[in-house]
Amino acid sequence: MKKTITQFLALKGNHYDIGWQMGKQLSGNIGICGEAEALSKDLLEEALKLYDQFCPGLTDELRGYADAKGVALNRLIFTSMTYLRPNCSEMVLLPEKTQNDHVLLARSYEFAPQYEDFRLYRVVPTGKYAYIGGSVAEFGRSEGLNEHGLGISMTSCGFPVSNMETMRKPAFKGLQFWAVVRTLLENCKTVEEALSRVKEMPVPYNINLMMADASGSAVLYETLDGNAVYGEISSEDAIGTKYLHATNHSHFEPMMTMEPFAMKNSIVRYEKIDAFLSRPEKKSIEDLKSFLLMPYPDGMNCHYFSAFFGTIKSVVMDLNDLSFYICWGGYEQNGWERYSIKNDLPEVYEICTSREIEFDDRAPAEDFFAQVPLK
């Protein structure tokens, strides 16, 4: 059994203040690379210009952190991070499918622990929407829930996009998913607003972006090599499915024709989620928790950390109750923690709490990563 430390931070203020608070609370050189890995001046200016146009406030947050740490802005890992490729599963259930008649968004996030922050942030940025979200390179978000009941999560879609030699080159310059997720959480109240905003953002990363809100609207927005397509569901529709789900392959045409193969494990997980959600009985939060922690291939929980496919976190979000449930490490003994974005919580910020968790590393089956046809 291996161990690591998880943290929860609560921050409040303008974006520069939030970055400064992070820099003072996080010890050592967290989020900082060496001089040799620092981004060049030209590339940094290019990245900051992109952030200023599509992710307003992000540059100020980066500057606050760099100033608190006493380092140059180009030494923040966030500005140059291009290799991340998490393997995840996600699902959203409208009130017609849930026992508490709420919209529930659940996800499992798989990757390698050496590249993980293991941090959760509750952020109240001045002039924007408060939210709770998982951390990627400190300033990015992998999923989250904001004060208006907008929930966002993501999975990688298809073969990974990166500047690394073994991966597919980006079709154009743009934003990685972790910048997209945080921008939507900070600036959008509804799925309609989030969909409109993401359509205007350059997203070279291949992504299955799940967006849902407390009114009972949900969208799965899929990108592949600069192309985008989406499917949507709503409680207002008298007929049609009342859930959406995604794993790590294309789910819509023409994407399935453009990339007609997927990892075997992605198809297995997709089919298991569909079988679980299509049953007539309504699901509770506890049902979703149990399903997320059920070992693969029957559930979503994977312990293949050395193979870059270990369950880092399992998350359930109640978009109406504004509750965020998280279990770290895919290990039930670590326990489920509940956080809230409700305004009636005590106004306590600039805090940082830590706890130790455990996770178990195993080897996957030989055909786990096998490429199989989608059709």
UniProtKB/TrEMBL annotation:
Domain Peptidase C45 hydrolase: 100-330
Signal peptide annotation: none
Gene3D superfamilies, per database record: Penicillin V Acylase, Chain A (3.60.60.10)
Superkingdom of source: Bacteria
Protein name: Peptidase C45 hydrolase domain-containing protein
